Every structure is written in structure tokens, then in C-alpha cells.
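Appendix B. Chain record.
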Amino acid sequence: NGSTGDPGWSSLGDGWSLSGWTGIRRSWARREQVLLDRWTPKMVHRWMAFVAVLVCFMTRVLIVKGFYVVVYVFFIFLLNQFLLFVQPKDRSALVADGPSLPLSDSDDFRPFYRSLPEFKFWYSAFRASLLALTCTFVPVLDIPVYWPVLLFYFIILFVATMRRQLQDMKRFKYVPWDLGKKRPNGPNPMVVNSNRPKPTSKP
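C-alpha cells predicted for this chain:
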């Protein structure tokens, strides 16, 4: 028995394994954070990468003609993340402060704080797409199922969820996209009026 014959070696081995795994995790976490920091301002490139992985995933499913349960779970997850993306972070603030849409020409758009920020939405969707693509190479996950039933149920769920979301937006009068500050009506002070009489020079 190694644990009783040489306790010093056992404790040294356990200590090395714990510190080793901790160091590896921290190293990977730092590398991941550096990579995410580089990708944060590149919104178009990030979503293009997600679409590329999504196309590969759907192509894989169409080729093997299976893994429909994986597809169903994946799109249910995307729907859930999308709902968090378009919902306000603090619903009570909307009730207390009133509507966020302008009621007159002099009102401004107030910023919309999402329950799930855009970067976190992309990050969760991108990781889920990679995981779903990986699952298509695991034969045990290819559960036989009649896929039209799953498709019909997802469509019903999607329509009902979007209808409830639109009703929620109409009730609390908010828009899930910040359209920016509305310009006030009237002439632009930076534009010179051509109809303004020019001063005459004195002889």
C-alpha cells in the first residue's frame, strides 16, 4: 500500500497534483481572458465565427441524418439566451420610472440595460454551438426520435414565447435596442443659412 508505506511520497504527490492542476487552470483562464479581450470589440467577426460553427453543425446533422435531440436542445438554449438578451435587466425600474420610449419631441431615449449583455450572449451561443458540434461525433447521443414532432413543438414554443415577449414590450413600453439620443427638432446650428443677408463692406 503506497499510502501507508511512504506517506511522505503520497503527500508530496497529492500536493503536486493539486498545485499542478491549479496552475494549469489559472494559465488557461488567463489565456482565455486575453483572447476574449481581443475579440470583445470585433462584434462582426465574433458573430461570423458563430455562424460558421452553426453552419458546420447543421451540415453535419444533415449529412448523418441524426442527432435531432441535440439540435432541439441546442435551439431551445439559443431561444432562452435570446430572451435574456432582449429583456431588461431591472424590470422594476421600468414600472417605477415609467416608459422608456419618448412621449414628445423633446424627450430622449433612455439607455436599455439588457439582462444578458451582447458579448455574454455571443459567448454562451458560441460555446453551445461548439459543444453541439462535438456531440454529433458521440454515437450514444444519437437518440432515435421522430424529428417532425420536435420541429412542430419548437415552432409552437417559439411563436408563444415571442408573442409573450412582444406583449411584455408593449406593456412596459421599452425597446430592446438602444437607438441613441434623438436629435431635437429645428435647424442645425452648425449649418450656415444661405438665405441670411451678407454684411456689406463699407467703402
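Further analysis of this model is presented in Appendix C.
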